[in-house]
Amino acid sequence: KAVVKLTFAKGAALPDPSALFNSSLEGNTRRAIDFREGEEIDGEALKALVRAAVALNRSKAKR
Fold first, then answer.
1. Number of domains in the chain
2. Residue 10 has what pLDDT?
3. Which of helix, strand or coil describes residue 11?
4. Domain carrying residue 53
5. Are 48 and 21 in contact (CB under 8 A)?
6. Ranges of the chain whose pLDDT falls below 50
7. Is 16:53 a contact under the CB 8 Å cutoff?
8. Could you tell me the pTM of the whole model?
């Protein structure tokens, strides 16, 4: 495969100020990031996005 895809099940609800989401998925809930060999990854932005996803999941689990 040419890419590694990281999918966020509730990605549409997450802020993405660094515009990491770059893969179109059907529907209006999921978002994904395609990583290609040789591409630079903004580690801090990715870490912030993962932390936001974890926080969102935890907040919905407590309801």
1. 1
2. 92
3. helix
4. 3-61
5. no
6. none
7. no
8. 0.84
